[in-house]
Amino acid sequence: MHTNYYFLRLLAPALTQQLAGYQVVTCFSQEKDELVIGLTNGTAEFWLKAQLSAAFPALALPETFHRARANSVDLMPDLLGQQVQQVVVLPQDRVLQFRFRSGATLLFKLYSSRPNAIFRLTDDGAAELFHQRYTPDADIRPLATEQPTEPALPQAVAPDSATNPLKRYPALSDLPARYLRTHGYDAAPPEAKEQQIQELIKRLENPEELFIITLEGRTRLSLLPLGEIVRTLPADAIAALRAFVPLALSRRAYELELRQLRQTLERRAEEAATSAGMARTRLHALEHTAGYRQTADLIMAYLSQIPAGATQVEVVDFYQDNQPRLIKLKPTETPQRTAQNLYRKAKNQQIETRQLAERAERRETEAFWCLERLEELAALPLDLRILRQWRKQHQLEPETKAKASQELPFKVFEDSGFTILVGRNAQNNDLLTQRYAHKDDLWLHAKDVSGSHVVVRHRAGQPVPEPVIERAAQLAAWYSRRQNDSLCPVTVTPKKFVRKPKGALPGQVLVEREKVVLVVPANPFERVG
Predict the structure, then answer these.
(1) Which residues touch 440 (CB under 8 Å, ≥6 apart)?
(2) Residues of the chain where predicted confidence (pLDDT) is lower than 50
(3) 66 in helix, strand or coil?
(4) Which of the chain's termini has less CB crowding within 10 Å, N or C?
(5) C-beta of residue 143 within 8 angstroms of C-beta of residue 89
(6) Residues 6 or more apart whose Cβ sits within 8 Å of residue 402
(7) pTM passes above 0.85
């Protein structure tokens, strides 16, 4: 709530009292999204450092500040020499206004998405913007001195405000709403809801204490006791900012990396569990339906009873308690040929069953590993150095190089930190294999049919895990003429064993050494469950 209206409402009179007789002596920036203003009354100094980044807008009030000799730029020259008259907050908004005795104003717009600073020499004068790209901010008008600072709040600003009085108070933000809900607001009758809100607003307008809290992995300043309370502070807005902002900035890197790690592990656990579930479902279907071998055995057992050119035959299934069973046949194919094809499919089905069982076990193990790491992550101490050591120990480090996925002319997929590139057509396949692929990258292609070249980017010191190879093989199968096959053989080999013979057509290559895996073609954009 350090940028919330109710906190700024507490901060504004404190700054008015603190800065009485102070005038601006310096205004500059030495970092991106930072505006530093130095004031003095002749004997003491006061520093205001505005962090105007969308990630963390804040007003820091350091007790001392040392300007760097390099990379420092003077800004807003007309602000120099201006003497502070009053600091106010725009009604029900996140805009803090400094009015100077000359009539000039400086507005700090502290919206989390587009913060800015707006300076005017007069109320009707041209606006000088700190972030010049936010041109609509020039339309934000300063609060005139004769205007009341607390206009009456409209009784309704939303159609459903009668059933939910919170809609009439848009400045409350998320923390007060959370606080109400933890005190039974949602289940309360309308009269009780209104009473709870009025009591809450009285508390926000005259807080007895302020709190630095941790909520959902973020360190925040609150006017209400919520989440895990890190520190309890007196209701001194200036002292609270001086305590909160340095702590929040020091924790931001830790909290960001912690959040990213948690999201990565949760995503991997979900993907692994989904993949294992799909494998188990397919395995169950194979184990509880009549297999190709059983059908072939029945055809051969009743071969003498099948007339030539028959499209179907009814037999007694000795595999299923001698129940009658209807077997469809191809009139253009002899029963012996049909049985032979079924025996071949049965052999592939055995391989598929074994691979499905292995995949399910492997992916379940991976999901369990991710859940264990999430438990460890929750127990780690609040220390960025320890967090990074733990991340490195478990090989969960983020990519150090900027990803060029948007610039690559191929289909790009990610799996467990590995980049998978898929060619779009014959010419694009040549581009991928001949120009973009490194000799140590893994190269895949559906065997004996036309299809996309697939490349798994090599990562130094990290062999490509089996689940990633499997995913890449499924992509190679899907982007080939075997897309609708129940099982597809895929060639897997290091790129160094793939060469293009002289005079070969676009997309044609020669593979000198290969390993073949059998996979089920998988649509990468189809989500199961």
Answers:
(1) 458, 494, 495, 496
(2) 147-149, 151-159, 400-406, 527-529
(3) coil
(4) C
(5) no
(6) none
(7) no
Cβ burial of 369 (10 Å; 0-12, 13-18, 19+) is middle
Instruction: From 80, 123, 100, select the one nearest 19 (Cα to Cα).
Output: 100
Query: Alpha-carbon distance 141 to 123, whole Å?
Result: 7
**Among the listed residues 224, 144, 147, 213, the one whose alpha carbon sits nearest the alpha carbon of residue 182:** 224
User: Do 423 and 452 contact (CB within 8 A), yes or no?
Assistant: yes
Phi, psi of 406 (to 5 degrees): -75, -20
| Helices 237-287 and 5-18, axial angle in degrees (round to 10) | 160
Q: How far apart are CA 126 and CA 143, in angstroms?
A: 15
Question: Token pair of 351, please?
Answer: 């391989």
Can you read off the two tokens belonging to residue 364?
């379940």
Place of tokens 């807008």: 57
Which residue's structure tokens are 């009030």?
61
Strands 411-415 and 498-499: unpaired
Per DSSP, the residues of 426-442 read: HHHHHHIIIII--TTSE
pLDDT tens per residue, range 391-407:
989 988 775 444 444 45
- Residues whose CB is less than 8 angstroms from the CB of residue 413 and which lie 6 or more positions away in sequence, other chains included: 419, 420, 422, 471, 475, 524
Give me the amino acid identity at 295: T
Task: Tokens 């101490």: give the residue.
Answer: 381
Three-state secondary-structure class, residue 8: helix
Answer positive or negative: Cα dihedral of 300, 301, 304, 307: negative
467's enclosing H/E stretch is helix 466-478
Instruction: Please give the Cα distance from 264 to 268 (Å, whole number).
Output: 6
Instruction: Write out pLDDT tens, residues 201-252.
Output: 999 999 999 999 998 878 899 999 999 999 999 999 999 999 999 888 888 8
